[in-house]
Amino acid sequence: MTEKTETKDETVATSRRRFLTGSLAAGGAAMAAGLATAGPAAAQGESVITEIQDWNRYLGDGVVSQPYGVPSRYEANVVRRDVEWLTASRESSVSFTPLHELDGIITPNGLCFERHHAGIAEIEPSQHRLMINGLVDTPLVFTMQDLMRFPRENHVYFLECAANSGMEWRGAQLNGCQYTHGMVHCVVYTGVKLKHLLGEAGVKTNAKWILPEGADSAAMTRSIPLEKALDDCLVAFKMNGEALRPEQGYPVRLVVPGWEGNMWVKWLRRLEVGDQPWHQREETSKYTDLLANGKARRFTWVMDVKSVITSPSPQAPIRHGRGRAVISGLAWSGNGKIKRVDVSIDGGRNWTTARLDGPSLDKALHRFYLDIDWDGSELLLQSRAIDEAGFVQPTKNELRAARGENSIYHNNGIQTWYVKADGTVENVEVS
Amino acid sequence: MTEKTETKDETVATSRRRFLTGSLAAGGAAMAAGLATAGPAAAQGESVITEIQDWNRYLGDGVVSQPYGVPSRYEANVVRRDVEWLTASRESSVSFTPLHELDGIITPNGLCFERHHAGIAEIEPSQHRLMINGLVDTPLVFTMQDLMRFPRENHVYFLECAANSGMEWRGAQLNGCQYTHGMVHCVVYTGVKLKHLLGEAGVKTNAKWILPEGADSAAMTRSIPLEKALDDCLVAFKMNGEALRPEQGYPVRLVVPGWEGNMWVKWLRRLEVGDQPWHQREETSKYTDLLANGKARRFTWVMDVKSVITSPSPQAPIRHGRGRAVISGLAWSGNGKIKRVDVSIDGGRNWTTARLDGPSLDKALHRFYLDIDWDGSELLLQSRAIDEAGFVQPTKNELRAARGENSIYHNNGIQTWYVKADGTVENVEVS
């Protein structure tokens, strides 16, 4: 198997660096529509290799040398990483998707961020059951095989932890989008609409809520309005075509499109139907948003419109010098599709509409690009997404003005990357 | 890492079993639109487990226990497999995608079938170059970094080997769709349009063809008309969001949407521009279609409209007995999108339109479903795809009548699965 090296990046800068928007020289880079106008990015004499490489001389490994394939050993740094000081233990922690190394809108299963409350439940599927009880006509127990007999659907959805970018509320400056925005992934789910299973049990007329419960030792639970459950929720058993991964709820998880990740209960073993919310631990002590006045916002389910530039970024500096360069990033919204993404190279003074690429799907990641001709001067890179419901991604300061700095969850503020003349990139804030 | 067990399935039945369409009892199963009408697939007393499982008692593994995640150990049989007698060596062989275990339209990178002519070239990307030469104004050499500076695009495309289903021309009866149809996969590619690179070099007015060449020790080459090269071909460096896998051409391959897989040159190191085809080994001695009269069809690039039922199938029998059942399959066409898929349960006498599910994308796999209520009688399952250009998938006998039985390539004939009363499934032909 491929060697895995877990690089220990320095994750927090020792000092906070804030930028005044005015500190950038005007006209730092010229925007180019389509192909950049710089000379060819190729044909430099030094790029020609005259030596014949081994891979051109000798037979390589044959088929099925890896029955389940793995990445090239030259990609060993493309891995999930955690931040050790963040939580008391790795069983109650989070790892982050290496967004800066990825492209397009699909996250490979092996790189989807993890968030556990009691570690990874390693379930034997033949021993797993899903029960529906509470305010139903007929309580039911399903085997995995039973679930496979209902009409199936496939949907591409992003999943974002409510705490994604949470460390940024108070201006922490983590060295890379893997840490600032890596608690999001996007895959194709295959599953059964929850409404079919609830229909089979027969929901009573006074029912208003459901409580999904996990089979891990945290028995994770969240209250979800019945209206959402009957709308687009899926009981999913596959991701990106194959079985769910253990760390993503194998053999079955709930999919709650557009809503915060902790509601997508993994290792799903029970669905209780009730007439009011249950006020469980993970919707009272956690996953509520403490405001400056001491009150907490609760049941803040929808993940707001958001975006981030993934390259260049602190872990993905510009290494090629001046000339044509690709700015690339991701945008998403729990309200539906992304309508537009704007990019600024001068800390938000001027904006240019980016190119959205790939299929635009409801509540999925969207990939955007802006092709520029970089003159080598400093940039303050930002992206700002607008969704089809009309929501515009706010600045971090606008969010702080509205909610104070005690919040952990639901930070969808605009991110700024400071690109230096040597192409290295820092996480900064502009004010 | 997950244990990998390579199951040695029996891949060829010892006797040929042909069915007369009339041999099936009429009305073997009733079609149900939407939910099947049988009783609940759940709530049997025996499905309740009273024991508390370990995964509900103890903490599981923490985050980053696998920096690059792997499947559950209970999925160890979901792997690529080869057929050892098929080729002289594994370096010049093929492995097959386990289609019967997958769902949706995306193939996970670790399960994409392999086809090599000289094994897997394991390339160090910093030592790789792509050259454009021949009838151009300025011959160019690109590093991988150079390629990343051009405007990028993302597209979902199927890739099918021209020899997929090739063993079926003469009626071989392989035990499962992994072997009959598993030389196809479908992923999201990220890359640069070939036309941008050719534009940079400046194609001369008398140019009509290009010759892509691989950096493996087979130096794989195929002639491609310039018109296709300037249309939708991509020079791709990512699949499903991450770097190409070594067995799929890492660090860079050609993508030739809808055309036969051997033209999608892996480990791409050179693109020559010329005014006529080169008549290389792989377009004369191989990848031509020998007809009954001794003449050979050549330059048969487009992969024709095709489909297969992936479940139930010989490797994925019906294990749940009578009642509601899901028939699931894949359809694709090199001509564009799939317009419709019909399913027959009686060997082609009667047809029902299946439900197409998931995004319908140009030259991509399409997933179809038919939800039925199975009465336990024998079925002769078939699927028939129709593409947006109006092409209809033919029967195998129609193909043989037109081309004889000497062909290896381009068999897009209708596949038949014989579902027995006990739910097991065999590969058969109807006549």
Automatic annotation (TrEMBL), chains A, B:
Keyword Transcription regulation: no
Keyword Oxidoreductase in annotation: yes
UniProt keywords, alphabetically: Metal-binding, Molybdenum, Oxidoreductase
Any GO BP: sulfur compound metabolic process
An MF annotation (GO) of this entry: molybdopterin cofactor binding
Occurrences of domain Moybdenum cofactor oxidoreductase dimerisation (ranges): 299-415
InterPro entries, A to Z: Ig_E-set (IPR014756), MoCF_OxRdtse_dimer (IPR005066), Mopterin_OxRdtase_euk (IPR008335), OxRdtase_Mopterin-bd_dom (IPR000572), OxRdtase_Mopterin-bd_sf (IPR036374), Sulfite_DH_SoxC (IPR030835), TAT_signal (IPR006311), TAT_signal_bac_arc (IPR019546)
Domain called Oxidoreductase molybdopterin-binding: residue spans: 117-278
PROSITE patterns in UniProt: TAT
Name of the protein in its database record: Sulfite dehydrogenase
Lineage of origin: Bacteria, Pseudomonadati, Pseudomonadota, Alphaproteobacteria, Rhodospirillales
